[in-house]
Specification:
The termini are far apart. By secondary structure, the protein is mostly beta strands. The strands form two sheets. The protein has a six-stranded mixed beta sheet, with no helix packed on it. A four-stranded antiparallel beta sheet has the order 1-3-8-7, with no helix packed on it. 30% of the residues are buried. It has no helices and ten strands.
């Protein structure tokens, strides 16, 4: 299994932006779909976005038009660009390929 390490979380004001990164310990070329999930306190983990090797993306309705997922197989990285962050976006964000990363905390507060 690939080992994944997320980074880029932090505190941002409503309307702000963050870019999350997910670094893989080996090539992700063989992993057809890479995904970002999030889990807020007291809630189930939910799928935020996914991207195939061919670049096909899907998004949760709650983030469409605000978040963008991308992947760079050459450097074994997956990204989540988050714009126009809202008070309902705070959560621990996880990267998933064939295993889970440890997550990175996103906080939205004025």
């Amino acid at each position: 299994q690939v080992r994944l390490v997320e980074s880029g979380g932090g505190l941002v004001q409503p309307g702000g932006s963050l870019r999350l990164s997910c670094a893989a310990s080996r090539s992700i070329t063989s992993i057809y779909i890479m995904r970002w999930y999030r889990q807020a306190p007291g809630k189930q983990r939910e799928l935020v976005a996914s991207i195939t090797n061919g670049g096909t993306t899907t998004y949760a309705d709650s983030v469409k038009g605000r978040f963008t997922i991308s992947r760079d197989n050459a450097v074994n990285m997956v990204y989540l660009q988050m714009n126009s962050l809202k008070p309902e976006d705070p959560a621990v964000y996880y990267c998933y390929g064939d295993s889970w990363g440890q997550g990175t905390q996103v906080t939205v507060s004025s």
